[in-house]
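Marked as duplicate of an earlier ticket. Keeping the data here for the record.
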Amino acid sequence: MLFFQPLFSWKLVRFLLVFHAVTILWVVFRADSLEHVQMIFSQIAAGLAGAPNLSWQVLLVLVAGFAIHWAPLRLHDSVKRGFVQAPAWGQAIFVLSVLHFLRYLYTEAPQPFIYSQF
């Protein structure tokens, strides 16, 4: 019984508590007023939190990243081999098309520094 590992880990509980505390405080620091904080938390509690900042391009990148993350390693290896074996013009077209797509994710609106609002 000396090497018995408990199924319940306080380390995980502490991690989750700190994660949620930091996330809640991010909302408080980012909101314009306490009424805005209350509105955000009420929407989260009601399950109505929208995503107005997520355009279809951003959602597509998120879905693609999720799919790539969970793809089998042999698929990753075959895509790498295919890219390396492609001619230089094919590699250039692929890279330029990815850059062209990512250009649409860029916003020209200035994002104020979060602590300058206080």
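See parent ticket for discussion. The chain has a mean pLDDT of 81.
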